[in-house]
Amino acid sequence: MTTFLPVPVLVATAVPAERDAVAEALPGPAGEVRLPGASLVRTAAGWDLLAAGVGPALAAATTAGALTAAALAGRPYGLVVSAGIGGGFAPGAPLGSLVVADAITVADLGAETADGFLPVTELGFGTVTHRPPESLVRVVSEATGARTGTILTVSTVTGTAARAAALRDRHPGALAEGMEGFGVAEAAAAHGVPVLEIRAVSNPVGPRDRAAWRIGDALAALTGAFGKLAPALESWNAHDR
How far apart are CA 130 and CA 28, in angstroms? Predict the structure, then answer.
């Protein structure tokens, strides 16, 4: 059964393969909307799907453009979802599992010092974490079976055990890492729109081993998650927002 949300939702992925995995779970597209440097696939149920690009900077810029265009058209979004595949920290987030962020944290925005890494907030400016609404995280976790924890945003994918250990030391609640969530969250925050991040785990965070990646399984898990997400968001909008 088609679920129509009371407010439009923007789903921002990094690449078209992730966008298409989300689209498989939703009613067929109603059309395409051209934006500067990108395009939206608009579904019949009010979901706009955007391949925003790889990395926090491009994801932020493209998402901000989509948010601005929607506001100017008199159709502002009520929720932004950063979605895709990513790395999971063992043993909390095994391959094929889903993670929904209770904190979207940029892991490498700051300064290296002789005493270790200082986040930008300790330098006296900026922010390093955006927190999705607790009620939304709870509803989505219950609906999809996703584990709940911090999802880190990195500009460089972790490729060594030492780097993975350093991230876990600084962020004990981290379950996954991706490259776009914080950028998407920054754009959403600038427009005063709530944000959610959900990742399907395709690889372990640690030594880079392409043979161990399960991208197809993770994309399938992402499709499955969004098949359950629409009614969960409808419930959240009706009762908890």
Answer: 32
